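Narrative of activities, Objective 1.

The group set out to show that a structural description can be obtained from nothing but a protein's sequence at a throughput compatible with the screening campaign. Below is one input-output pair from the validation batch, recorded exactly as produced.
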Amino acid sequence: METPSNHHYRWDGGNDARATDIESSVDGSSVAMSLDRNGSDLSELREPLVRKRTMNTTSQIAIIGANVCPIESLDYEIVENDMFKQDWRSRQKNQIYQYVFLKWFLALLIGLMTGLVGFFNNMAVENIAGFKLLLTSDLMLKHRYILAFFTYAGCNMVLAAAAAAICAYIAPAAAGSGIPEVKAYLNGVDAYSILAPSTLLVKIFGSILGVSAGFVLGKEGPMVHTGACIANLLGQGGSRKYHLTWRGLRYFKNDRDRRDLITCGSAAGVAAAFRAPVGGVLFALEEAASWWRSALLWRTFFTTAVVAVVLRGLIEFCRSGKCGLFGKGGLIMFDVSESVASYSTPDLIAILVLGVIGGVFGSLFNFLVDKVLRTYSIINERGAPFKILLTIIISLLTSCCSFGLPWLAHCTKCPENSVEQCPTVGRSGNYKNFQCPPGYYNGLASLFFNTNDDAIRNLFSAGTQNEFHMSSLFIFFTAIYFLGIITYGIAVPSGLFIPVILAGATYGRIVGTILGSITDLHPGLFALLGAASFLGGTMRMTVSVCVILLELTNDLLMLPLVMLVLLISKTIADSFNKGVYDQIVIMKGLPYMEAHAEPYMRNLVAGDVVSGPLISFSGVERVGNIVHALRLTGHNGFPVVDEPPLSDSPELVGLVLRSHLLVLLNGKKFTKDRVRLPPQKVLAGFSPSDFGKSGLGKGLKLEDLEITDEEMEMYVDMHSIVNTSPYTVVETMSLAKAQVLFRALGLRHLCVVPKTPGRPPIVGILTRHDFMPEHIIGLLPHLKASKKAVSMTM
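Output recorded for this entry:
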């Protein structure tokens, strides 16, 4: 195998022909070889969909929402060049205070806006779905059953088609929950459409329409994405187009501060969806964020506290009846604190069984979701009309189940000592009349013919031991389980939390009903524990889910049991497959970097995966060479190497970014001779914000430059914009250590330097792509055979 150093060369005019044969890699100047796409990993679950049918030769691509688009890595590293040092020295104390104040002020705005959006979502869903259910119920009371079905199914179909249309045509990235995309972004993966304003709007209105359409999905996952979009919009660092160029906003024109704001936004989304501020912080810490520190913890907690205050105030306002059909809720969504929880040894055995059931059902759920998503991706690739058609089909199937299955249930006589009115008159309640005569109710209709939130509230309710027949619970569980699987993946904003809670609460209540005579816990508490077990089996989150459930139900006495059932279900499910969001991240082709390295990486060194040729510049380079390199490659980082007469011997000056080169070329600080200029002269006319990252892809592009033929023969001094202290590793460093370093520091480029003297000062550049299993196995096919042998012996 040829050593990487043999691929090293400088860019000059004579190498243009050679450069056209290069496969470029978006994230750096290490160039990727052709990969064996069929051998990316051992199991189908690990194989990204986008690489299964798409040969990627120009850039890295992934599925964002329901759309295939190019992706890049984010720059979390501080670029320590002359411009940065000059800006840092010139900052005054009042500017530092201004920067700190702005961070807290933006956190406040994120909390306010996310809280308002969360309240608006809830109010809109309750009113739209409530109107639909009232209209259908009125027709049912008049025994006009066929017209009631067509009214119900027609409303659902119109709402579903509208949600799919705006998603398919305006913002395909808004499809799905958005949590995998936010998780990948906070890990360092960027795509233009992930957090765009159009994605935000479609996420809000698409989620309202989708949930109102009666789909077995929730608005909680989309709220996480919504909060992240709001944070990204506020953290753009100003906009010249809208004259928002306040000097203080320039401090946020970098990926590090935006990452912190988006972390706050994702936590605020959970807080707004579940009205669980502490759970939101823990969700961001446990599931979303890849980097965390104490200062971020305080700001995230402050953001979620603002969300809680906003929701509390608005919900109190709605208690007066000024919000239509929405107004009976509170910060505690499913209050089960009325009953005193006491449990004995038989209860603990039942909880162990619940944990095992949750682990098995959860891993099976993830497996089936993966299969369905792979099937839907083939349909979605055919275009927007097919996405809408698929959504309408699933809507009709859901409507048939919701309206048709309650006919299988027997009518039950209303309990004499019922606290609530029976049968229920109006939109929500425990006792739906459906087709039953006066004085009777349909238990299955009480679950199906409600909003998902009301169905969960009915399952969690206390004092209703005999409300639901076992047959009704079995039918409802089977329907919800499989409807949740086939619904996730259609082109509407959809979350998995609510379907999982519904299914888990149902089988939890089944267990509680069976054990009713030998247990001290009522079926409603078993429903809560069942929901926890299924969440642990699918999401594989423990701490955050535990706190979210306790904040949802206001039942602190159940803490030990919820913790126990979560730990058991997660342990069981982990032995079968990954968590649902981790699985979707892999399937979408997002190059997510785990906190730990793969075991086989310990047998490799950094030099093994660095592929060439490597393009480097001199500290004072010909303008034409830079333009040709930028035009013919997609690299975002180039090593700068000085050679005599600029230095006594070849030495690595540092790393220069593509965006900084474009700004420098646009400033036209050119010279006719190849001479090094003082930094003050090169940087004259530039401000630090010129080199900051523009938001939403509005930065300077190569096509925007106007360089004449005469200027192409001139020279430009790059020393002032070169990051003179890039992170470097020696070529013999273990690839596992390099991967841990790369992720822990949030890098985009990691320079690999030679171990022995007398060679070029840089061997290559490691990027995120170079650590991906499919890339490594493509370079070293023998690893696939060795991994198979290891898996067969385990």
